[in-house]
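Worked example

This section walks through a single chain of length 372. The input is the sequence exactly as stored; nothing has been trimmed or padded.
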Amino acid sequence: MPRLPSSLLRRAYSIDPLLPLLLPPCRDLSSARNELRWLREHVRATNPKNQPNHAIQLSKLVLERSRGKPLQYILGTQPFGDLEILCKRGVLIPRPETESLTTHLASLLLPHHSTLNPPPSSSPLRILDLFTGTACIPLLLHSLLFPHLPVSLTALDISPSALSLARRSLTHNIHLRTLSPSAAADIRFIHADVCSLALDPASTTPLSASSADPARFDILTANPPYISPSAFASASTESSVRVYEPRLALVPPPPPSSVRPSESEPHATVHPADTFYPLILSIATRVCAQLVVAEVGDMEQAQRVVGRSREQMREGGWEGCEIWRDCPGPVEWGDGGKEGEWKGGDVRVRGAGEGRTVVWWRGERGRKWVGG
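Given that input, the structure is written out below as tokens.
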């Protein structure tokens, strides 16, 4: 990381003696001033009757931030759409890229909800979110889709701490009136392990609403751990992420023995960052989903995931897949608009920026949702 010029530090100090401490994590004066303002507002809001200690408390928070602690863990929240998602150490911080893909997904669903053989009110659109973390995806989907489209959302995670925080976020946003009170009944939380769900045919039972209702979902969303152990340990992963955010939500375990090389590439191995994608598609096939939306780290990973899913797609009846960039939008073919530039040039690529999401679809509803 380049050193900050002394002239910038002097200018920051002339504005506020605390600003130079925020420059290392913020890297520019404008961002540092914004963070100082937010920290000052946080101190005033959380201790309105203790004004004499405001300066001490503010200095303490600025020092924590200067040491790399994420701002979201200090403030305890992260804006996500119109929502305010609660944050705490040990639970992954929601990212803008995740907000973008969630908003885009909702924009695809709403125009078609009255034309795709809409289910009666007793059978809403069923969405399963794996690796839910703060539940930012299901919470935002509910806020965007309801009341236009009845939805039932299931949020699953292996971390009890994450699920506890997700439930608090649900209540918090209902209290703020950024979520409808109906969200309390429309969103349920399940503590489960994705590996167990994928590898044990009987393990989808916890996903069923009742013993008489099989586990069936229309859409599956997922933001799985997708950073390889080597990348996590290297400079490519920010030090604040390595130190403060949960490795469990960032780095996948080694691939299960059942995730073997495909017949078309018998000598290929599963990349250590890609462990969960075959499992996600396996679960989606079993629960009869017609659309899968899975976040990835970059275009290189998106290409790997798409290429390796070909055989699973054939076996599961998946009709197509596409890649969404940071800002999903108009369709390109292959990568960069040049058909066949990479192995998989028949795959649509939408939008601008880095590759962030792989989408699979099948069936009439899946095709219409993605415009296939």
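What to look for: The two ends are 44 Å apart (CA to CA).
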